[in-house]
Amino acid sequence: MSSASTLSSICFEQGCWFKGERKIRVTDKVVKRPSSMSFRVSATSSASKDIRIGLLGASGYTGAEIVRLLANHPHFGVTLMTADRKAGQSMDSVFPHLRAQKLPRLVSVKDADFSSVDAVFCCLPHGTTQEIIKGLPTTLKIVDLSADFRLRDISEYEEWYGQPHQAVELQKEVVYGLTELLRDDIKKARLVANPGCYPTSVQLPLVPLLKENLIKHENIIIDAKSGVSGAGRGAKEANLYSEIAEGISSYGVTRHRHVPEIEQGLSDVAQSKVTVSFTPHLMPMIRGMQSTIYVEMAPGVKTEDLYQQLRSSYEDEEFVKVLEEGVVPRTHNVRGSNYCFMNVFPDRIPGRAIIISVIDNLVKGASGQALQNLNIMMGLPETMGLLHQPLFP
């Protein structure tokens, strides 16, 4: 038998499996879920997959990314999609690039039948999610991509988001979903608050260093840059092509809403209050995010110590890669993927180091990490549906 026919036999007669995943047969035969529950897998339509997914806020960029990623997921199939302003429309009329998928029509949240789903991705705008999630059946597993449940301190939420928290009791059971660092808690969670894009790119490199007391808690400076898709799909004058192209603009200076989320995570691991200097910038690109972080090392610590700590922390992680020494991470090299690339460089100022971390703001910074979290919550390999390689050029 030729090599080509052998590959065909393996893939189409026996089913395919991928790096980091258990053997999954893409046929109509009964197979075993990691939790030992049996189910059927079909490679045809979304509705025929065994775990039924509801997607709230499907008409935004993060909703569209969820749909794109789930197209290659063997178990998650979208059976419910909401978009109040687009209710009654088909998904391909809102996002023509998703035309090849068989998807349900969009409905308003008030008309959604949640008895037909097992889990929910919530991609609604900040400030609208708390009331809706509070009213969902308690049997559902939920990953919320908004900021509504990320801050544990209710008063801090009100201070930064300008409105009272509408689901105080529910907040108590929320697990923050920075996957690589909190997966044991995520496994047991019913409701996960998916991290913001900037906090993901900042915490992944800083948490292991703070945990080992390799850097000081003071004088952390974060210079972060994001593509325009991070601002959402809504029509805004500041996001027009003529406003964005051929220029860079800072925004949210000293008051960006991701600041308390970053400080919450860093303070938790440092076991003392950490305050950062954080300035985000809008770049004339569609997607991608880079955080350049300036830190002061603890006495006696060298840049090589930081590098080795990050290498050892993430050596077994699929989606976080510490590059070879001297290699500068680029947003182009993670575009469209769930990967975070990072590296550490010595500063010219003695005792300081520079850390560069890059992600795709819509994938690892939003929808990809959300899928990674739901995989864990459902007892599946966390890489499932996420092993797309970055898109380049």
From TrEMBL:
Q: Which domain of life does the protein's organism represent? A: Eukaryota
Keyword field: Amino-acid biosynthesis, Arginine biosynthesis, NADP, Oxidoreductase
Pfam family example for this protein?
Semialdhyde_dhC_1
List the molecular function annotations (GO) for this entry. N-acetyl-gamma-glutamyl-phosphate reductase activity
Q: Where is the Semialdehyde dehydrogenase NAD-binding domain?
A: 52-189
Does this UniProt record's set of keywords contain 4Fe-4S?
no
Q: Annotated pathway, please?
A: Amino-acid biosynthesis; L-arginine biosynthesis; N(2)-acetyl-L-ornithine from L-glutamate: step 3/4
Gene Ontology process terms (BP): L-arginine biosynthetic process
Which sites are catalytic?
C197
Family statement: Belongs to the NAGSA dehydrogenase family. Type 1 subfamily.
Would you tell me the protein name for this molecule?
Probable N-acetyl-gamma-glutamyl-phosphate reductase, chloroplastic
